[in-house]
């Protein structure tokens, strides 16, 4: 089973009152937060429902970027049967997704061949070492559904809280485009 848990650093009231200029200047056009991917018993990231500010500071991730990369990976899996996502904090580490009939096989690898300026690719990685797990089996429809549901929830939340920000943010619009291409 594949599960995504995430939490934004900003409260709903902080998001609602955020101007586009503040979002760009103070938040680099993305929302920081915690995110955890559970691939059966293997996990990547960090999440705590009752996270402290210390936990947010220690484990913060770019939430819009992660969801955009996941949706890009879904699209590549559907078109090419393979996708790899470069982890944000550890640029040599990749999460690799491969089609296998009704399932997706997932690896966590270290790639020694540098691919500059690429964060999601359909080109199989070379020079890889399995540093985490290999061929973790996830049902494909459940995998796609979890990404679609959690991305849709995030998009709806931001649009509901601050529609002007949602319309102005380049990263948010890229996420929305990736979501629509991947699932509709």
- Extended strand count: 10
Q: Based on Cα principal axes, name the global outline.
A: globular
> How large a portion of the residues is in β-strands, by DSSP E?
25-35%
- The N- and C-terminal alpha carbons lie at a distance of 23 Å
Structural class of the helices, strands and pairings?
alpha+beta
Helical amount: 40-55%
Radius of gyration equals 16 Å
Major sheet characteristics: 6 strands, antiparallel
Q: List low-confidence stretches.
A: none
Overall average pLDDT: 94
Order of helices and strands: EHHEEHEHEEEEEEHHH
The number of domains: 1
Q: How many H/I helices?
A: 7
Task: Explain how this protein is built.
With 184 residues, the protein is α+β, with helices and mostly antiparallel strands. It has one domain. Helices cover 44% and strands 29% of the residues. The chain is built from seven helices and ten strands. Helix 4 packs antiparallel against helix 5, helix 4 packs parallel to helix 7 and helix 5 packs antiparallel against helix 7. The longest helix is centred in the last third of the chain and has 22 residues.
């Amino acid at each position: 089973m594949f599960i995504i848990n995430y939490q934004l650093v900003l409260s709903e009231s902080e998001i609602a009152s955020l101007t586009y200029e503040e979002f760009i200047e103070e938040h680099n056009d993305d929302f920081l937060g915690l995110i955890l991917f559970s691939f059966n018993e293997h996990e990547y990231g960090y999440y705590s429902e009752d996270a402290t500010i210390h936990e947010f500071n220690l484990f913060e991730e770019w939430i819009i970027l992660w969801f955009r990369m996941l949706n890009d990976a879904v699209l590549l899996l559907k078109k090419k049967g393979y996708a790899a996502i470069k982890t944000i904090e550890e640029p040599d580490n990749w999460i690799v997704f491969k089609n296998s009939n009704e399932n997706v096989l997932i690896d966590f690898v270290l790639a020694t061949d540098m691919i500059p300026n690429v964060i999601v690719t359909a080109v199989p990685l070379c020079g890889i070492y399995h540093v985490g797990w290999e061929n973790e089996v996830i049902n494909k429809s459940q995998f796609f559904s979890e990404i679609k549901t959690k991305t849709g929830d995030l998009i709806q939340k931001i649009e509901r809280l601050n529609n002007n920000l949602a319309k102005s943010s380049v990263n948010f619009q890229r996420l929305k485009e990736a979501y629509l291409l991947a699932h509709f």
